[in-house]
Amino acid sequence: MRIYTRTGDKGQTGLIGARADKDDARVEAYGTIDEANSFIGKAMTELDPEIYADLLADLEAIQNELFDCGGDLADVRKEPQFKMTEQPVAILESRIDDLMDEPPLLERFILPGGSPAAATLHIARTITRRAERQTVTLMKKGEDFPPVVQRYLNRLSDYLFAAARVANCRVGVPDNEYVRSAKVFKNGGRGKKSE
């Protein structure tokens, strides 16, 4: 099976309903979503199924939802068929609340790292934040896509933070606090909403 088409050799790629330059802001955004999805896949290979069955189930659903987000950003038809809904956002919020009850209370910023899986989840978190910033740029330009995509990416970065902390906690690896951080979290970091 041949996977190359040569149609992108002049610096363009296919959206759903049009072609665009490969450095188009819309292509950048869904490409960054793909990058985050790839690191989520890597994190899944680093999570022991006997310890992290719940996280693995979450992350598999998230990988599918990220494909939906990317597809919605790529759909530029006059009558697009968007897939993302508010339900995955609500599910992420519920899971964040559950996960944040598990690790020790948090008062200060923490450094990304710890166990291999936690470190990878932190990478996915920061890439997700970049994807969110790129969707905000699209929103400011008046591009047509469901606003829920931006909200989903916002919650997902919070979820990945919580999941990284749980990934460390369950194997007894403490979070490494940023030593010059003031006490910035109220309620031990619980109940803090996305920004």
TrEMBL record:
InterPro entries: CblAdoTrfase-like, CblAdoTrfase-like_sf, PduO-typ. The keyword ATP-binding applies. Residues 3-167 form the Cobalamin adenosyltransferase-like domain. Its EC number is 2.5.1.17. It catalyses: 2 cob(II)yrinate a,c diamide + reduced [electron-transfer flavoprotein] + 2 ATP = 2 adenosylcob(III)yrinate a,c-diamide + 2 triphosphate + oxidized [electron-transfer flavoprotein] + 3 H(+); 2 cob(II)alamin + reduced [electron-transfer flavoprotein] + 2 ATP = 2 adenosylcob(III)alamin + 2 triphosphate + oxidized [electron-transfer flavoprotein] + 3 H(+). Keywords: ATP-binding, Cobalamin biosynthesis, Nucleotide-binding, Transferase. GO terms for biological process: cobalamin biosynthetic process. It comes from the Bacteria. Pathway: Cofactor biosynthesis; adenosylcobalamin biosynthesis; adenosylcobalamin from cob(II)yrinate a,c-diamide: step 2/7. The keyword Mitochondrion does not apply. One of its GO terms (molecular function) is corrinoid adenosyltransferase activity. Belongs to the Cob(I)alamin adenosyltransferase family. Homotrimer. This is Corrinoid adenosyltransferase. It comes from Planococcus koreensis.
